[in-house]
Structures are given as C-alpha cells and as structure tokens.
C-alpha cells in the first residue's frame, strides 16, 4: 500500500512541476495584462446605471433606483408637464389637406411641376415630371388665433386656440420605417431608445400599478417600423413601451389561469424574484432588474390595468364626446384611454393610428376620400381629448403632440409615370405640419411657413431633433445634458443637434 | 512665408516655458549653493541656455504679435520685459562665468541678482498670461467685493432686456445692438485684442470695419457682419468661432432687421420703425415653475423616507429647488388623520395631490399649515368646501383642482384668495353658469362640461 501512495504522490508532484514549467514568465505576464485590460474595459462598458453614474462590476447592495427602476426622479429644471400623449398618424397625413393652406397651389393644379423643384430630390414613387395638385379641402381661419383648419376637420376648430402649429417641420427620411424610427428615437436606424423610453428612464412613473409608458394602436395595423418605435434601445428594457389593446383583454394573458389563486401567484413571483436578486448580485446585469420589476409590475397590473382600460364605466356624454366604440379597436377609444392613463399618472402614452398613406393607388388611400375618412376618425376624438383634459385641469400637466413621420408632396403621385386611379400624394419630408398643445405651450401660436405651393419650409424650419428637444424641455430636461452612457460614450435623444423651439413655448 | 511666420508665432506659448524652466532651475541650484559657491560653472551654463531660449521666445513672441492682430499697447509691457529678461540671463551667465570679465559685476551680490531674475521672469510671465487669458483671468474667480478692493473695475455684463412698456423707447444702437455685440463679439474685437482689425465695442469701430473692409451694409445679405453669423457652424469663417458663446436666433434676426432699415446709429426703436415681434422674445417672461420663487432649506432625508414608507410619493420638483411635490396617487386610503405625517416637510410642500383620497372638509384646517402650497389637487374627493376659506392665507396658492368633488359653495368666496389663478370646478355641485373669472380676470374658473354636438358630416363615409 505504501508503495502505491508513493506512486500517486510522485505523479502529483510531477504534474505540478510540468504545470509550472508550462506556465512561463511570458504566460504569466500575458494573463496579467489580459486581466488588467479586462478590469479597465469593464469600467468603460459598465455604463448602465441611471443617469450615467459608473458603478463597480460586482456589488451586493441595490440602490433604490436599481430595485425600482420606475421610481420618480427630479428633472433638471422645473417641468412644465408631467405626462405626454403623442398622437402619431402612421403613414403620414397630408398637411396640404389639413392645416397648411396653399391657395396658390390651386392655380397650378394640373400643371407640370417645375424641374427646379425636382432636381436632387428623392421621392418614394414619383417618376418623371409629376403634375401639381391643388388642395382637395376647403380652408377657413378659425378661432381667435385665426389659424387655418380645413373642412376635413370640422370639430377641431373648437380647440384650435389651444394648440401651437409647427408648419415647417422637416425630416431627411422618405420611407415610413426609417422616418418613424427617426421621429420616435432620433435616429432612422434601429437601436436607439424611443422618446417615451427616455422620458420614463429620466422621470420614472408615478403610479406603481401601471407601466410608465403605454402604447395603443388603431387603424388595423401597427407602424411599419415595428415595435422598435416604442423600444428601449440600449436603455434597460423596463423603460420600453407596454402595448395595450383596446379590444379584448387590454394585455394578453393578464388573467390568472384557472385554478391558480392570486396568493399562489404572489408566492411564485416572490420566489422567482429572490433567485433573480441573487443572480443580479452575482452578475450585476441590469436586465435582471428589469425582469424582477416586470414580474412585480405584472402582478399589480392584473388588478389595475383592467380597471383603467375599461371605458364602459365612463358616463354617456363622455363616450359621445370622444365617439368611442366599446369593444372595438379605434382611435377614439384610444384617446379616451389616453386621458384615463394620464389621469392615473402614466408618464408617456403613445398612440399610433395606421392608414394615412394616401398615395392614390386605392380608394382608402386617396386624398379626397380615404384621407377624409381618416380625418373623420380622428377629428372628434382628438378634439374631445383636448377638451376633456382641459376641463379636468389635466391639460396644464400634459403635453399632446400630433404628427406623422413626414408630409406629402404638393404634386400628384404618378407611380410608374402613369396616371393613378385616385388622387394621391407621395411621401415628402421637406415640410410638413405638426402641432402641440398643453402645459407650457403658447396657445394659438403658429410657427414656420412653407413656400407658395407647400414644397419647402421658407421660415421657421424645425427638425425632428428640435421637436425632441422641445418635448424634453417641457418635461424638465436639458436635452444636451440628458445622456446615457453606452459603449463608451454618452448618448442623447437629440444626438448632437436639436434646438428648443422657443416660438411655441408660453 | 506668412504661414511659417504664423506657425512659429503660435509656438511662442510653448517655447516660453523653456527659459522659465532654466531660470527656475538656476535659481534653485543657486539657493543650494549659496554657502559653498562651487557650482558657478554649471549655473553659468544654465543661464546661458536660459538666455538662448529666451531669445527664441522673444523672436516667436514678436512673430505672434505680428501675426495675430494684437495692438502694440496691449503687448508692450510683455515685449519689453521679455527682452530685458533675455538680456539679464546673459548678464547672469557672464557674472557666474569662471573668467569674470565684467569687473563691476563681480561686486553685485549674487543673491540680489537672483531676486531680480526671479522678479523679471514672474512679471514677464504674468504679462504674457494676461494677454492670452485676459487681464481678469486670475482674479476672475474672486468675489466682486475682493475685486473692487484690489482696485479692479467690476463690469456686470448687461444682457439685452426689454420690456413690454419700454421697447419702443429703447435706443436702437445703444440699448439694442451694442448689448448684443458686447455679450457675443467684443471679447475678441476690442482695443486690447483686435481680431481681423475689427473693433465692435463702439459705434466708431463698427462703422470703420475691419481688415477686409466694411462689415455693415444697407441690406443684411450684403453685410459681412451678418453673413459671418449665419454661415454654417463648421465653416471656418463662422463668427463667433466655434466654442465661443453664440448669438441666439432672435439676436441674429434683430441684427438683420436693423441692417435692413439701414443700420441706424441714432434714434429709438419706434423712430426706426422696427416691428414688435422682433423684440418680444427679449421681454422678461413670467415662467411659472410650480413653486414659490424663493430659496428654501432642504427637507431632511429621514422625514421624506418616513412619508414615502407610508406609501406617499415625495418628489423634488426639479434639481434646482428644494420644494417638493407630494402625491397620494398610490395611497387612496389617505385620511385627514394622516395629514400630520406631512407636517415634517410642511415648508417644502409646493404641490400636493390628494385626488381620489378619503379626505373630508376637516382637511382644510390642516392644509392652511402649508405656507408654500402652490398647486392643490382635491379632485374626486368627498369635500364640500365648507372650510375652504381657511386657505386664503396661503399667498402662493395658484391652482385648486376640485373636479369631481362634492364642492357646493358660492364661487365668490375665491375672490379673497390673493394670488389664485385657476380653480377647476367640473363635475362639482356649483352653479355651472357662475362667473367665468374673478379678481379682474386674474382668477379663471373652469366649469368644463364641454360638448361636441353631432354634426351631419360625422356620419358621411366617403
């Protein structure tokens, strides 16, 4: 036996010696350098703490914000609004039939578009020399402000003195997907957080039972750019928009399955979260925190969401005012829901209404018919939304933003250089109209102007970044200082651009 | 050639540090060697190099003065003291040299000469610093009181501020244009630093123009001054240069408008027929921040934590104030008796949301203890308003939301609230046909009940 253990000992010693010989000084120095490099890199890449404060890789204690990423934070300066309702008309509405009145364009109706306008421009479908098309709507100056509104929006004139128009917004994208991404994330490419994600990341959310950023869609389709338009990009995913439905269950699978009691559910979630917290202590991955928070939020949402998403309990005159259709998916329902959500302290409500892409290729996509139907669908609800927020004292705390991803051409579309079946206009990003209303907005203002035919902005041109800077300003943020450290550099919603549009601020 | 001259000139701030280093080294060694006096040979050599590099510094300095548009008056002290320092280095070199050929110098005590060298280099360096950074660079961080004690003139940078009442009477040049130039242009276009030979601190300067001629024109498009400002930021000709404080859109617009009416140097805004919309953005705006305009002590973290633990949100309104916003949005069971929990932060509460809680009319006595309350929300509560008069002692109270409460008092009672601006009365029991405003229109009463009647086009489908 003794002999046997001797052999083992000798073998072990030999193994040890071989190992030491194999690890030369060169190996040792190399692995040291790698270790040091790793340490240095970890401090560069670990930029995922709220408001860009670096933190050590492994830590066993949680900050308040880590465990409760939606806890409310102080903005840079006194905020004008607490919530935002963003109404996006996906497909791009025609400013020339709604707000941007161009009487001169009537005169040129049917004439060839001058070559000078077409040079160097890119259009989605227009080929050759298109013909100009006069406004297909009638316009009147409305309210004390005397701002122009077309007869496609007969109700909207009642609140025209509450809103501020931006008549010369421009974008550099001419296809829906990139333009929508640009409009909502500040970049036409994927990967950036949306405005709603930035807002909830920066300010948190008041109601602990509801998500801070809710998305509602209508019009039968979701935006072309997909869910990235309400994504959280590189921000922790807890800040992404939560899509709720106005038809059927507001959130899919929100009810407990049969036979599962709420207590059992609670115990399950507590156990899962305990394990997740241990995981976080080990790896410090903020995504784990997002997951912990989402479990808890989902549990609380089971009670709160069906309540807030139920529009049947609203009084009849309110339902009539918005023109809601309970049980259906409609923009009107979503507007009423938006008010209810804001009333309950939701930070950012994003509405997408699909079906505004009026090329003139089909009847629904025609300027004189399809567009008119779409206008009717939004006219009453968006007017009611402003009135309802106003009478409840919520309009002082809320910002409403209305717009599309770009505008439409003063020329009639001639896809394939042929005459189209219906009257339509092509995508156009040089000049289009948006409006804002609510806290901090100069009532009845109109900023910017387009040329005689509405092709380009000639005065008060504002970019998508300027719109973002203004929204952040109203929420109390200095858009130049509101950054998030990612991949070694701080990122902003407005990138390196954006000027606050002071002309529409009260 | 000019390029090389300018390049060499720009090396001046680098090269000057060589003689400074040599002289300081020599002075230190001299101090160590004050007893033994064994290092004279070495010290002499160091002073020789100090002298050589000082001459180089003088040459590059002169080139920079030529190439960068400094006036002689602003550099003369630096220039002469620099030359004196260079020469003095050679004097020291000779004095310390092993073969002492300057007989009379031998008698001058080394310590005195060392002090002179030290004073010379300090004075020259300081003068140079003043040229690059400005004379007030060093004293800049000092408080104004110390500055004036030191005999410096304290200049308050005047921003262009006009009011609704005085804009027409403002002098178009002195009160409007010059303040813009002062804050954005004069730091590089003044008698001390005259970039492009252009002076913008006075009427005479702007009328005279710069090295490339007139900067003013009868039309803004033809004016160098205006065109430089509207060049893209990345254009080298853009003024003010990148990194300097830029004029605002409104200021540029104003300068253009002034140019378009023939850049008058006299008369008021009214006499020169400039339109009001050019000036409105300079009027001081009353931005309502949601809290009283005053400083307040910070609430203790402990008391905030205690209230939050009870389920009530306590949030700072912004990073720039200690005032707090308190919300019971997650605490619908909040009752009158819970109010005392808030008393530890009663000075800091500026916004209070008790909407949807169980409070009753007894809450008003308690609310009157919040001296800085500005925004109060009591919507969807049971209050009838029987004690609401007690709140009229709150001088900062701007807005009360009573929507959906049982409020049933006569709205005239609000006329005793001094600074109240808005009361929301939708879905309350008050007469919806009451006055729309009180206190000469300063207080707006919002009854709501908006209707959107059906119109024929609602049912037309195209």
TrEMBL record, chain B:
Keywords (A to Z) from UniProt = Membrane, Transmembrane, Transmembrane helix
A molecular function (GO) term = electron transfer activity
Gene3D superfamilies from the entry? Ribonuclease Inhibitor (3.80.10.10)
User: Could you tell me which residue ranges the DUF2231 domain spans?
Assistant: 11-131
> Where does the record place the Cytochrome C Planctomycete-type domain?
185-243
Q: Does the keyword Ion transport apply?
A: no
Can you tell which superkingdom this protein's organism belongs to?
Answer: Bacteria
The answer to whether keyword Membrane applies is: yes
Residue ranges of the TM segments: 12-32, 44-65, 77-96, 108-125
PANTHER family linked to this entry: CYCLOINULO-OLIGOSACCHARIDE FRUCTANOTRANSFERASE-RELATED (PTHR35889), F-BOX DOMAIN-CONTAINING PROTEIN (PTHR35889:SF3)
- The protein depicted here goes by the name Uncharacterized protein
Q: Name the source organism.
A: Euzebyella marina
